[in-house]
Recover the amino acids of this structure.
């Protein structure tokens, strides 16, 4: 437990040469880390632990942030779909003749802008392009933006497009979760490795002290 606490604490002040050795050890990988642990000081091992954990923590946090943004995007897309569906997307006479109100268009513009902003922050270029295209369909309409005309057929097409986008988001979210689980597993392995390395170094020091005393 003490080793893990030291690994997670960012309070390491090692000489530059030890940090260089630790960085090389990190780049070499887990297997070589075990073989080279006896060549390093405790400070160097702690630098290795910190470097490895910081890298994994950054990756995990990035994936989690992307997951949270995807959830926000899904919620906004659901609001757009509900708005369009409430206006009507069937072949009924009511839905065909209901072309929306100025308030409907204003609400949809705001929701699309919000969705595009989230997708852009996520770096999802294709998502941004598709949402921009869907928004343009709603903005243009048959009667033009000034007439606030959003025909049923166009509402239906946009709802189908958004449903496809949501399906793609769910697929990417599943892949992200698999990657997050893998990174967490790597983090656990790194902590176990670090604990073993420090334990071996401690045993070596004890053996040296016993030899000196004998």
């Amino acid at each position: 437990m003490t080793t893990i606490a030291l690994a997670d604490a960012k309070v390491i002040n090692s000489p530059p040469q030890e940090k260089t050795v630790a960085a090389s050890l990190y780049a070499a990988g887990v297997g070589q880390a075990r073989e080279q642990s006896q060549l390093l000081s405790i400070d160097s091992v702690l630098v290795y632990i910190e470097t490895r954990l910081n890298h994994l923590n950054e990756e995990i946090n990035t994936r989690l942030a992307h997951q949270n943004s995807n959830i926000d995007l899904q919620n906004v897309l659901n609001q757009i779909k509900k708005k369009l569906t409430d206006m009507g997307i069937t072949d009924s006479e009511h839905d065909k003749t209901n072309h929306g109100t100025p308030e409907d268009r204003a609400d949809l513009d705001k929701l699309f802008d919000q969705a595009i902003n989230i997708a852009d922050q996520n770096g999802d270029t294709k998502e941004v392009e598709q949402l921009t295209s869907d928004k343009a369909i709603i903005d243009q309409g048959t009667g033009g933006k000034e007439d606030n005309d959003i025909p049923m057929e166009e509402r239906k097409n946009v709802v189908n497009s958004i449903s496809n986008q949501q399906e793609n988001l769910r697929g990417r979210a599943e892949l992200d979760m698999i990657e997050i689980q893998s990174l967490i597993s790597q983090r656990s392995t790194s902590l176990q490795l670090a604990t073993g390395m420090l334990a071996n170094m401690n045993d070596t020091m004890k053996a040296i002290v016993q030899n000196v005393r004998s």
Q: What stands out?
A: DSSP finds eight helices and no strands in the chain. Residues 74 and 166 are 7 Å apart (CA to CA).
